[in-house]
């Protein structure tokens, strides 16, 4: 039987894994004046999903496929490949902070020896992939979980950063569901190849904004 | 002379060009770098050259090999398939210059064009390549693929600049990937996609309303202990240390000239011997 409830558990923003402290780059974009209205928010979220979202999804799917095959030998290579796709040191740190918190949450909620094997500061997509495998989910599920978690986390932050109607924000999320399904499908296909060939679409403004954000005195979100 | 009937006559659309140029440098007996192979092919013309202006790492040095890449024809056009293979031999220093910007144009029937550049930088060698902009003209459909394989003690600086169409023109479909490995391990891997066939690039997470995007990647084994610190030096530009001994300078801008200024500022933040 398909494991659907486990996917909902993993993708739920209420999973105590620290995601609520991050806006997925939305706060820096709003502060810089790059996102000012709902149309700008929707473009921002689509751009993010198509770039860093797809990368995270592909790495989660790959980690899931490897863990499901009981083979963790590629995890170090995956970490190096993901670092190479994340030029901003701030975003590499955020990814490892969220990964550490997700690993801690999962090893408490659903203990498994794989979580110890991830090391102290694994990247979030890699932990998500391993967690999905441990819960009996597949690569596509792992990809979807991280796409949804990252996308809804940034959208939720919009309510705190901008004057928005929450229904409008969720309308964007509803319009994006087909896109997230398609991206998860692409991620699962990419997971069948070599780590070096995983997708690497960049998001220059996100990298630049993240470095500015870290230096700001007043901010609501860590990233 | 280039014979367009000779290359892949059974492949691709009518009139499409396929070309492979090869370039190598090596260390000569007196310690100067010299050109080993210099093989132009049709649209890819390679010539020995002199310094074009200030150069990071090699400024006013007579002992480095300098080659300019010039376009032998317009293009690439849709359907064209170009390849440039570069080998920077052990201990040598190669400066690759470009004579002009590269305008990527559509071809007959909407076929895609492709350019693959592969660079191997051997032990102790230095590769310097400040490329001129690639302009993605309206309705082009181009894939650009640059792979750089560095030896663990090789040095490199390269610049890439991409423009979203000519002045006042909507960009065609364009995808460019730059992947740098060091000792076989990934150091930098980023792809830029834009054009009517991709989504989200006009949003504030990717390029916003900017019409020019570029980066400079510098790698120096001497940074193994301490990479230069992160420095967001403009609203639209940042210098960021990579996870290995390298930095990426990323910038977006409304047009070509402002992008060049931002990237040059980033290079100059590195100080000597990088500053130009």
From TrEMBL, chain A:
<comment type="subunit">
    <text>UreD, UreF and UreG form a complex that acts as a GTP-hydrolysis-dependent molecular chaperone, activating the urease apoprotein by helping to assemble the nickel containing metallocenter of UreC. The UreE protein probably delivers the nickel.</text>
</comment>
<keyword id="KW-0963">Cytoplasm</keyword>
<dbReference type="InterPro" id="IPR038277">
    <property type="entry name" value="UreF_sf"/>
</dbReference>
<protein>
    <recommendedName>
        <fullName>Urease accessory protein UreF</fullName>
    </recommendedName>
</protein>
<comment type="similarity">
    <text>Belongs to the UreF family.</text>
</comment>
<dbReference type="GO" id="GO:0016151">
    <property type="term" value="F:nickel cation binding"/>
</dbReference>
<keyword id="KW-0143">Chaperone</keyword>
<dbReference type="GO" id="GO:0005737">
    <property type="term" value="C:cytoplasm"/>
</dbReference>
<keyword id="KW-0996">Nickel insertion</keyword>
<comment type="function">
    <text>Required for maturation of urease via the functional incorporation of the urease nickel metallocenter.</text>
</comment>
<dbReference type="InterPro" id="IPR002639">
    <property type="entry name" value="UreF"/>
</dbReference>
<dbReference type="Pfam" id="PF01730">
    <property type="entry name" value="UreF"/>
</dbReference>
TrEMBL record, chain B:
<dbReference type="GO" id="GO:0005737">
    <property type="term" value="C:cytoplasm"/>
</dbReference>
<comment type="subunit">
    <text>UreD, UreF and UreG form a complex that acts as a GTP-hydrolysis-dependent molecular chaperone, activating the urease apoprotein by helping to assemble the nickel containing metallocenter of UreC. The UreE protein probably delivers the nickel.</text>
</comment>
<feature type="region of interest" description="Disordered">
    <location>
        <begin position="27"/>
        <end position="60"/>
    </location>
</feature>
<dbReference type="GO" id="GO:0016151">
    <property type="term" value="F:nickel cation binding"/>
</dbReference>
<keyword id="KW-0963">Cytoplasm</keyword>
<dbReference type="InterPro" id="IPR002669">
    <property type="entry name" value="UreD"/>
</dbReference>
<protein>
    <recommendedName>
        <fullName>Urease accessory protein UreD</fullName>
    </recommendedName>
</protein>
<comment type="similarity">
    <text>Belongs to the UreD family.</text>
</comment>
<comment type="function">
    <text>Required for maturation of urease via the functional incorporation of the urease nickel metallocenter.</text>
</comment>
<keyword id="KW-0143">Chaperone</keyword>
<dbReference type="Pfam" id="PF01774">
    <property type="entry name" value="UreD"/>
</dbReference>
<keyword id="KW-0996">Nickel insertion</keyword>
